[in-house]
Amino acid sequence: MRGRRGEANREARLPRSALVRKDCHSSHVGIMPDRREESALLGTSRTAHIPLAEGRPGAETGLAWRPPGTGAPMRRIARIVASAACCATISASLATAFALPSASAAEPTSGECHVNAPLGPKKGSNLQATASCEGPHLSETFFVGSLPASFPDPAKASAQQIAAVRASNCTVQRMNAYMGLNSPVPSRFRPVALFPNSVEYAAGDRWIRCDLVYSSGLSLGEMPKPAAQWVGDNVADLTVFNYCTPGVGYSKMPSPTKTSAQQCTNPSKQWVLVSRPTVGSIGQKYPGSRSLNSKAAAKCKVFKNTYSGGIKDPYSRGWSYIYPMAKGWTEGVRTVSCWVPLKQYLNSK
């Protein structure tokens, strides 16, 4: 099927059998089995952003007052004093009820759990309520680091500054070590970074909080117990944490726009994530989609042989990959995701 004319077609020359989709954020290329040639599926698309709920009071609350009356001076003074005392009492009650931020919250601690989803780097703070890790929770702090002395208010920091400190502190290796997870393929756990808000930064807070979350569908899933305990309970079969996604559309391949995270239960319809190789450094400028397409293909193509599934004809082995476009690159994405059909993966063991 010939692709439509557009930016994606100008960026890469594909075989006549290729199908081209156009969008704006991350690019997806998948190689489907073809006995005549290895044909590609290219689609430039937006990386799926997980919707995160802040979990804070949404209703606005204010205080109303009325000027003192026109009675005798002492009566007027008494009314003023009473009004001031009443307002002070109401203000204190509201501050307690809604947990208004103080000048500086306590520094976060590794091992704390939270029932509300982590905020983005421009909104994150340590004011989120902690919860017992023994019950369902959405995130768990696995590391607390320190920002460089020269680091600006995170609300005003550039995307590259945010990406640099996140990459050096909130690493997958550090997250896996915290949980005791030693899996040969990437899992559905992933690290996220939180920073002081402007009030906390002005008060002198310079921490970076690294939380682990668990992808489920297009959002976050609850962890039923402490992450390390959850992993330990499944040490005999860590495949329960493997990252699978369904094949979608005409190609029946992983979606680059809505990569739904699922448990690997359907070998005939799912693809499994087998690697996330690095294709650039944080300080590197965006090399362009054509360059990343070539790098991603070179990094991921080997896995059709690693996980051949007993298929002797190499052109009949399925494989696929997704790589970042300019926006994802700006946000610090320096990896590509490599996929193979779940049935092929399981038959390779």
What does this structure look like?
This protein is an alpha+beta fold and 349 residues long. The protein folds into two domains: 7-46 and 242-305 and 320-346, no CATH class; 113-230, no CATH class. It is 25% helix and 19% strand. The chain contains ten helices and 13 strands. It has helices at 7-11, 73-98, 159-169, 172-179, 198-202, 227-233, 289-300, 303-306, 326-330, 342-346; strands spanning 19-21, 26-32, 39-45, 113-114, 130-131, 139-146, 189-194, 207-216, 219-221, 244-246, 270-275, 319-324, 337-341. It has a seven-stranded mixed sheet. Strands 4, 5, 6, 7, 8 and 9 form a six-stranded antiparallel sheet that branches. The protein is globular, with a radius of gyration of 26 Å. Residues 1-25 and 31-104 have low confidence and may be disordered.
Summarize the topology.
Elements: H1 7-11, E1 19-21, E2 26-32, E3 39-45, H2 73-98, E4 113-114, E5 130-131, E6 139-146, H3 159-169, H4 172-179, E7 189-194, H5 198-202, E8 207-216, E9 219-221, H6 227-233, E10 244-246, E11 270-275, H7 289-300, H8 303-306, E12 319-324, H9 326-330, E13 337-341, H10 342-346
Parallel strand pairs: 1-3
Antiparallel strand pairs: 2-3, 2-12, 4-5, 4-6, 6-8, 7-8, 8-9, 10-11, 11-13, 12-13
